Amino acid sequence: MSLPPITSAALALACLVAAAPARAVDGEFQCLIEPYRRIEIRSAVEALIDKVHVQRGSVVRKGQRLVELQSDVERAALDSAKFRAVMEGSMRSAEARVDYARDKLRRREELSRQNFVSSQERDDAAAEMRVAQAELLEARDNRQLSVLESKRLEELLRQRTLISPFDGVVTEVEQHPGELAQTGEGARPILTMAQIHPLRVEVVLPVALYNQIKAGAAAEIEAEAPTKGKYKATVQIVDKVVDSASGTFGVRLELPNPAGNMPAGVKCKVRFR
Fold first, then answer.
1. Whether the predicted pLDDT of 19 surpasses 60
2. Segment 56-92, tens digit of pLDDT
3. For residues 51 and 198, what is the distance between their CA atoms, to the nearest angstrom?
4. 209 is a domain residue
5. How far apart are CA 27 and CA 58, in angstroms?
6. Mean per-residue pLDDT of the chain
7. 133 and 49 both lie in a single domain
8. What local confidence, expressed as pLDDT, does residue 116 receive?
9. Domain region containing 101
């Protein structure tokens, strides 16, 4: 697995490392603390936004409701499908017709054996029985279809409520109630989120250290203002592609941030143990 494309900040780090070989001796390197991941929250369906439950800077938990889209039509359709799924009228009517046709056929067969009715009348009763059974089967199928339709509509209704996929913080709210949430390529996100526990630390190292840095290795991170202090981190990824132009390679570390006190976007220094 390789790191994402080098950002301008990472490129600046690469230039710094390449221009200051003395840092390779003392083992201290410039780094950048970033969110573990950033995502844009979009709607899977095109609809008007009804409610936005968060604002910029809101701390949210996984599964928390973020946005609700208008869903009056979908709720009405779901209620209708649920009602059809429990309707008894058509089922009882079809069952009654089967019972009547079964009794009629039994009487016709008995009379036919005694030569009181023709074989044609007996056959007609048998045909009525088959038709009644088919109607009962259709009523049962329709009920099952209503159950399946209810499940489909429940899923569509679920898509009208956008929830947080992880614990994190809202970094931007771009759309508000009354605006149209759109789908497809290029659609504007409703809001953006960042996961800040754990944080990731990006560092660019000289290629001479490539064989000395291994995944799982411990490191010490010293953050700059506004959050100063030293923190323990762990190497997660060592880039498999070396940048030949600068003679450097990328390393990603994981920095626990359970209290969320460490902001992302802070410059830092890292020392590998």
1. no
2. 999 999 999 999 999 999 999 999 998 888 888 888 8
3. 30
4. yes
5. 38
6. 88
7. no
8. 84
9. 72-158
